[in-house]
Amino acid sequence: MKYLIQNIKITCEDIIILDLMSAIKEKMIDFLPGQYAMLAFYDENGKLVSPHAFSIASSPENVPLIEFGIKIKGKFTQSLAKLTPGKEIFVYGPYGNFIFDPHMDRDTVFIAGGVGITPLLSSIRYAADKKLPNKLTLLYSSRWTDKILYYEEIKKLEAANPNFKAFFAVTDSGIPEGAERMINERLGAKIISAALKNQLRGKTFFLCGPGPFMASITDDLENLGVEKKFIKTEAFSMIPALPLKEDLPNLALVYGGFAALMTLVTLWIYNIESARTTDNTYARTNLIYSLKQIQELQKNMFQEQTSAQPPTAPAVSNAPAPIYNIPPTPAINYQAPIRPRTTVS
Ligand SMILES: Cc1cc2nc3c(=O)[nH]c(=O)nc-3n(C[C@H](O)[C@H](O)[C@H](O)COP(=O)(O)OP(=O)(O)OC[C@H]3O[C@@H](n4cnc5c(N)ncnc54)[C@H](O)[C@@H]3O)c2cc1C
């Protein structure tokens, strides 16, 4: 859906606060507190960038205006920061199950790390707009006091809603003197149970922030006896970019080309394989043929052998046997020599 930038400002050095107004009043996204949308826009080179996910920070009661709190990181967010009021932004959605349900979540604890405050703020603003009786507690972790996103507004919401209390844990800087419910300590089990006066049962916990932060808070909550089913989380990990309608012809070309290439490769492999199989068949046929030939040859040889005549005895002749003149053997006269006797005395 097409939206127009109503307001865009950079706060806390690296956070864009982006207010969008629906370009056509009847056409706007219908979301629940905690959900997110995918944003796309034409960058400075006139190229439509692929959509990226961002939680909606405003209350659903605030439509047709929607607000986002966006940390400047890479190319996408840097290009976004250069946009000016009146520029078009395409909003797809809403998406997500990280939804605050006022009927179910009667007693809710929101735990935020840095820019992870955005979906939680949507719920807190919604509760204020609707004057909900739900009991809400916010535990917000930040590195620096001057980088607590939406600090002023949170304080105002606290003043306006007696059912809402906010606690701040700051790690990397000191805290202003007399700051209410602000502690110079890392957010963990100790601060959570102190803020909730050890009453953790019957509460729903919503966690949003960097991955390691959420993992450590989930461990703390489980160690404090909170069941997993009462812990809801939203990870701000990168969602693979959606293909844009404008990119579809190019994508079709790329994927079509790839499919054609794969078909060619498959056919080529198939040809080699079938040629090899044919060769094998040919070789096998030849072998069978040769074996047959050998068998035939052996059979022929055997037949030749069995049909061959046994050797015949030479014919007996009646002619007289030949007479041979053999000279008589000479007689041998041998006399042993006589040796003289010897006596031993
Ligand atoms: C459901 C959901 C809600 C979100 N809500 C918010 C919000 O309210 N505010 C906000 O500031 N951010 C939010 N994010 C995170 C946000 O989508 C990304 O941080 C942002 O799109 C990154 O912008 P970029 O300029 O770095 O993008 P690119 O220029 O496209 O990023 C460049 C590269 O940086 C890496 N990268 C950047 N961010 C991340 C990340 N978060 N995780 C992993 N890799 C990353 C990727 O490799 C990416 O390809 C949300 C994410 C999700 C999934």
Bound molecules: flavin-adenine dinucleotide
CATH architecture of the domain at 97-240: 3-Layer(aba) Sandwich
| Biggest sheet architecture | 6 strands, antiparallel
Helix/strand order, N-terminal first: EEEEEHEEHEHEEHEHEH
CATH topology of the domain at 97-240: Rossmann fold
- Text of the CATH class of the domain at 97-240: Alpha Beta
Low-confidence stretches: 281-289, 308-317
Overview of the structural elements:
The strands form two sheets. The protein has a six-stranded antiparallel beta sheet, covered by helices on one side. Helix content is 32%, strand content 22%. The protein has helices spanning 75-81, 117-130, 151-160, 189-195, 211-223, 248-307; strands at 2-11, 15-22, 36-40, 52-55, 65-71, 88-95, 107-113, 135-142, 164-170, 182-183, 204-209, 231-235. Among the domains are: 1-96, Translation factors (Elongation Factor Tu (Ef-tu), domain 3), CATH 2.40.30; 97-240, Nucleotide-binding domain of ferredoxin-NADP reductase (FNR) module (Rossmann fold). The chain is α/β, with parallel strands linked by helices and 345 residues long. It contains six helices and twelve strands. Helix 3 (151-160) links the parallel strand 8 and strand 9. It binds flavin-adenine dinucleotide (FAD). The site of flavin-adenine dinucleotide has 22 residues, from strand 4, strand 5 and helix 1.
